[in-house]
Every structure is written in C-alpha cells, then in structure tokens.
Amino acid sequence: MVVLSASAAQAGRLVFSRSLQRQISSLTTLALVQPGHRHAPVLTSSGALGEACPDTAAAALRRQLQPGAVTSFRRRRPGRAAARALAAQLPAELAADLAAGRGWTLFSCGFEDGSEDLIALKLEGGPHDAHCGDILQAIWPVLREDSLRELAGETQAAVTSALLWTISKKTDSAVLVLDGEGRLLHCNESGRDMLDGGDLLSDQGGRLSCARPGETAGFYAAVAECARARRGSARGPRELILFLEDRQSGMRLPVSLTRYRCAGADQPLVVAILPRQPDRTRIEMLAQKMGLSPAEARVAALIQLGLSNREAAHIAGLKEQTFNTYAKRVLAKLQSAGRAEMAQRLTWQASLGRAS
C-alpha cells in the first residue's frame, strides 16, 4: 500500500491500489475511492503520490470486505457534499477540481449493510467517458473486493513475514509445527539444532523420536489428544504440558503442546515449544555486550552454569584465587548482589533471542 502524501500518512486515510490501477486503466489514469464513506480510507489508482501505509488503514480495509450485495448505484452531482468530503482528503492540486466537478465524475454504490462507496473518476476526453458509469457499475463489486484484499493482504503479509522471521531466527526456544499425528512439518533454527543434537527429540524423516525410547509413545499420544481438543469442550485442553527427559543432563524439561486451527485448513496443527538452555558461547557473547572483557565473560558464563569456583577455575585453566578475583570484578561490573542474581540476569538476557 502507498500513502499519497506526508499529511495523509499521519491521518492514515489515503492508500494506493495496484489492482484498481490495472483494472480501471481503460477508463482513466486516476480513480479515487472511499469504501464505506466516512468510515474508511481513500483508495487511488495513481501510484505516483506516496510510498507507505499505516496499519490502521489496513484494519479499516478489512472491515469493508463483506458489505453484502449491491443495492444501488448512481451518479452524484458535482460540487455537492460528497464531492467536497472526498476532496478534503486529497492533495491541494487535486482537491479543487474534484470539489467543483471540473474534469471529474462521481458515483456512489450502496450495499446491504448500509455502507456506501464513493468512486471518483478523472475524465480525460477518452472514448469511454460517456459510458464510464455503465462500465463501472458492471465491474465495481468484483473490483472493490480485489482492491481491498490486495491492500489488506500486503500489510498482513508484511506482519506475517516479520513474525515468521522472528520465530525462525531470533527466538531461542525450539518451535516445532506438527500435524495431528505428530509428523514434523516445520521448525525454526533452534528447533533444528535441538533435533540434530538428539538429546531430547530427534527427527528421522519427519518422524520424531524421544531420546528416552519409553517416552515416544506418550509424546505421540499427547500430540493426538491436543489436536482433538476443541475450544470450550470437556474433551480436553487446547494446551498440554509434557515433560521429557534430556539424555545429556538427565533433567526433565517441559514441552508445551498447543492446538492451532488455521482458517481454511481441514485439520488442526500442533505447535510444540521447548525452552532451551543457552550455551556458554552465547552467554559469553552477551556478557561482553554488557561490558565485560572476554576473560571476564568466560568467568561469568561458568558461574551462570552453576559451577563452584573451584570447578569453574579448573575448566577455565585459572588458579582458584585468580578466578575469585575475576568473579568479584564481574559482579561489580554487572551491579549484581550475588552469583544467583548475575546468573539469572544472563539467563534472562540469553532467552530474549538468538545471537545476531
């Protein structure tokens, strides 16, 4: 979508439709439309007047998509209130001629829900000027839906793309999308890392297996139960929490299973989310971004793992006294009251997203 001018960008009233431009080009090079009249944005078939559109306009467009059948279509007289109201939302170079009806013709189309579209065509002395009303009446119901879906869809596509990118690239939780039978359909990068490691779940051609073989049957039973659940039904919850044992640490980790019903899909999906413990490399990177030196960051990462100073010093290749000195410096720089607070802060920071 394209906003026509800077002032329109703030008001969120003027948007550009490529579909409108393509389909109405035989009548005019510039058409203006106000769907729903007084309650919606103005559409234009000219793309030369701006570059972007706010989300509020997209929401208004979506509300206009199903007004019911057409109940009336008529020509509006120039210079009246409808023309002036439409002109008031336009750049000055267009507004005066439209308000006065100079070189423009204005139509209104009413619908069952009581809403009314205003359509203004700029006349250019072409062969269809005398019949533009008849042509417009024939094509308008389909044309308006195409235009509104295009404009609403562009913003929605951008929003969806941003969400999918964040889930795929930035979140440090493993996200798996499964069908009702537990087959893997898609996962984000953290999910792929987790599956490749195989310490909790592994992927064998779309078939998931738990690291502890005895848990696999229970995992599939939980996915099937989640997929069958209905909103407000006594048959079961739409979200289940399942605990699986991590092979490396021996810890039992929670897996959230949530039923997701996509519009237009025959079968529900199940989204599995598994929180991941950030690795030491990521903790070190975040600690450096928080102002620690590389050596101090290594010490902070070892403390975050819950190791004693003696154990951590041995891993770091430092004397215990030297490690203690670094540890005190780390706590001071991070303004933490103790090891637990520092570890919690680093863990929280690491859980915000993957390394960029």
Task: Describe this protein's structure.
- The protein has 356 residues and is α+β, with helices and mostly antiparallel strands.
- It folds into 3 domains: 6-167, no CATH class; 171-274, Beta-Lactamase, CATH 3.30.450.20; 280-351, Winged helix-like DNA-binding domain superfamily/Winged helix DNA-binding domain (Arc Repressor Mutant, subunit A, Orthogonal Bundle), CATH 1.10.10.
- Helix content is 44%, strand content 20%.
- The chain contains 13 helices and 13 strands.
- The protein has helices at 6-11, 18-24, 55-63, 81-87, 92-100, 132-170, 189-197, 216-228, 280-289, 294-304, 309-316, 320-333, 339-351; strands at 14-16, 31-34, 42-44, 70-76, 104-111, 116-122, 174-178, 184-187, 201-204, 207-210, 239-245, 252-260, 269-274.
- It has a 6-stranded mixed sheet, with helices on both faces.
- The longest helix has 39 residues, at 132-170.
- The radius of gyration is 30 Å and the shape is elongated.
- The two termini are 30 Å apart.
- 31% of the residues are buried.
- Mean pLDDT is 77; it is low at 1-12 and 232-237.
Largest sheet: spatial strand order: 1-3-2-6-5-4
**Helical residue percent?**
40-55%
Largest sheet: 6 strands, mixed
**Rough shape?**
elongated
| Structure summary, number of beta strands | 13
Order of helices and strands: HEHEEHEHHEEHEEHEEHEEEHHHHH
Residue ranges: pLDDT <50 for 5 or more in a row?
1-12, 232-237
Number of domains: 3
Structural class assignment:
alpha+beta
Number of helices: 13
Share of residues in strands: 15-25%
Mean pLDDT metric: 77
Chain oligomer state: single chain
In whole angstroms, the N-to-C terminal distance is 30 Å
| Rg for CA atoms | 30 Å
